[in-house]
């Protein structure tokens, strides 16, 4: 069998777009469909020659550019599953991912090489390195475990055969785990294909479209960015890092490249509205905006819709474990009031959305419960963690009476009488900040492992802009170090989005009469500097 996912999408995309039309573009480079096919074929062949076989895992850690897309497609064409790791992930955490998934190779570039080599050393594994865009130099040139760009460029660019099937893993995506260790979500070729085939229809993506990519490639929102344009013969325009920090730059990038479709994290849309980056005459090419990853406060949606009455807006919902978008709501008109909730909508094709009680029985419309997602997008489970998979996944009965694999999301929701679902928040200590899922216990574990931290707790509190929550760490220290040292310690072990904005030192953390940390009291303490614990 040829490449179940990639080859089909490349063939479909090429049929809809001339071979030399852009497939993926960044600030410095453009790859046509023909160039993308050749580059990914060579990388796949290089991985095969490095010993990669069907069913293996290949990680990648790359700067934001066209290279992550080449890595994804090349890895899939080799028959392996890809494991994306953010370039700012500390070596210790990267090593934990490597220990868990045991990659046979890691694709990196000169900017991420040192990080990757440190993580490999910490993991204790024997891992080949594929170094893109760099020439051999110094002692590295003699390292037999490093494959250089020149080695890849010298290979045949003809397609390879691949025996992967629909149920084969396409990627493992690591998220924050409640046990304090990252957990790898398995997503199959069939999971992706079912999602992307639906998304292409739902959002009417065509060969003339230019899709804006703002999601990190280690974030599941990148699944849409990579595969939907590829299937439809459209082009993906990867926003540079600076544009993600400065909204005005992002608007300029969208205008310069005449972007037509954007699926972005809600917090970025909110930030753009708050900073005044959007205006009635801006981005005339943009026709469709899909926001996801977390709740977009209604007042910011109203500002977007008031500014751009001619554009179409969608609210999308879906955990990593259910692949991309599980439910979606096309917003018909601008909401009347800032406190009007925006539904996450109805389930996409071949998907079931239920709201269940504690006994996992459906609750009546209008009553809250836990959102359960079943259907074609549901992951096979977590890598190397059958116990967690058994607890998080279950079997439900679909509308046609057939059994369906399902995922208990941990999200609270309520079904309206019209069948649309409203998201109400989390049932546990997992939170979302800037679209990233974060387990508070994951941060607390790192804090507690520091010798001079006696006790620690992390809470989420509103800021002066109540729509933008922040992490606050409360710590009890032994007196040898100061609170200012906590952030530096965390930065050595956690990615930036998991580091609390504020660190509050206390003589002792408040506890309930049962001896547990009194988090409700800490929440009150976090709301103002004068509150007492």
Would you mind describing this structure in some detail?
With 533 residues, the protein is α/β, with parallel strands linked by helices. The longest helix has 17 residues, at 33-49. Mean pLDDT is 90; it is low at 528-533. The strands form six sheets. It has a nine-stranded mixed sheet. The N and C termini lie far apart (64 Å). It is globular, with a radius of gyration of 23 Å. The chain has three domains: 6-238, Rossmann fold (3-Layer(aba) Sandwich), CATH 3.40.50; 343-426, Luciferase, domain 3, CATH 2.30.38.10; 430-526, ANL, C-terminal domain (GMP Synthetase, Chain A, domain 3), CATH 3.30.300.30.
Largest sheet: 9 strands, mixed
Strand tally, please? Answer: 27
Q: How many helical stretches?
A: 16
Tell me the helix content: 25-40%
Structural class of the helix and strand makeup? alpha/beta
- Mean pLDDT, to the nearest integer, reads 90
CATH architecture of the largest domain: 3-Layer(aba) Sandwich
Q: For the CA atoms, what is the radius of gyration?
A: 23 Å
Per CATH, what is the topology of the largest domain?
Rossmann fold
Low-confidence stretches: 528-533
């Amino acid at each position: 069998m040829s490449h179940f996912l990639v080859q089909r999408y490349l063939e479909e995309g090429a049929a809809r777009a001339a071979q030399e039309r852009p497939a993926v573009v960044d600030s410095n480079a453009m790859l046509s469909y023909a160039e993308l096919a050749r580059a990914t074929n060579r990388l796949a062949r290089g991985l095969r020659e490095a010993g990669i076989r069907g069913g293996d895992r290949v990680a990648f850690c790359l700067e934001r550019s066209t290279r992550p897309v080449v890595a994804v497609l090349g890895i899939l064409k080799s028959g392996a599953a890809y494991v994306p790791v953010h370039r700012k992930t500390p070596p210790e955490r990267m090593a934990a991912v490597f220990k868990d998934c045991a990659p046979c190779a890691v694709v990196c570039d000169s900017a991420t090489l040192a990080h990757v080599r440190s993580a490999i050393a910490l993991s204790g594994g024997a891992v080949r390195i594929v170094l893109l865009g760099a020439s051999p130099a110094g002692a590295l040139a003699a390292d037999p475990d490093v494959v250089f760009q020149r080695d890849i460029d010298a290979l045949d660019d003809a397609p390879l055969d691949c025996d992967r099937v629909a149920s084969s893993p396409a990627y493992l995506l690591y998220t924050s785990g409640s046990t304090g260790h990252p957990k790898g979500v398995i997503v199959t070729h069939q999971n992706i294909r079912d999602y992307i085939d639906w998304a292409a229809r739902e959002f009417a993506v065509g060969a003339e479209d230019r899709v804006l990519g703002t999601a990190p490639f280690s974030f599941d929102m990148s699944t849409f960015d990579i595969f939907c344009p590829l299937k439809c013969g459209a082009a993906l325009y990867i926003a540079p890092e600076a544009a993600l920090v400065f909204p005005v730059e992002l608007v300029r990038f969208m205008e310069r490249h005449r972007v037509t479709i954007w699926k972005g994290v809600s917090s970025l849309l909110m930030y753009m509205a708050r900073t005044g980056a959007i205006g009635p005459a801006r981005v005339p090419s943009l026709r469709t905006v899909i926001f996801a990853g977390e709740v977009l406060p209604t007042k910011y949606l109203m500002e977007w819709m008031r500014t751009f009455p001619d554009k179409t807006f969608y609210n999308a919902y879906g955990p990593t474990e259910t692949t991309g978008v599980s439910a979606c709501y096309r917003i018909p008109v601008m909401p009347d009031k800032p406190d009007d909730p925006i539904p996450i909508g109805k389930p996409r094709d071949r998907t079931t959305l239920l709201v269940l009680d504690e006994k996992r029985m459906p609750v009546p419309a209008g009553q809250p419960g836990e959102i359960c997602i079943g259907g074609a997008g549901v992951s096979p489970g977590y890598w190397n963690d059958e116990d967690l998979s058994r607890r998080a996944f279950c079997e439900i009965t679909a509308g046609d009476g057939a059994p369906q694999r399902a995922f208990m999301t941990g999200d609270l929701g309520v079904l309206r009488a019209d069948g649309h679902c409203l998201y109400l928040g989390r049932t546990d200590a997992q939170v979302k900040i800037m679209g990233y899922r974060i387990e508070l216990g994951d941060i607390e574990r790192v804090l507690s492992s520091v010798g001079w931290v006696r006790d620690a707790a992390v809470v989420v509190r509103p800021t002066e802009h109540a729509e933008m929550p922040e992490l606050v760490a409360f710590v009890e220290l032994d007196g040898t170090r100061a609170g200012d040292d906590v952030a530096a310690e965390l930065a050595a072990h956690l990615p930036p989005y998991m580091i609390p904005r504020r660190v509050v030192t206390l003589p002792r953390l408040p506890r309930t009469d049962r001896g547990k940390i009194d988090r409700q009291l800490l929440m009150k303490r976090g709301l103002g500097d004068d509150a007492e614990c």
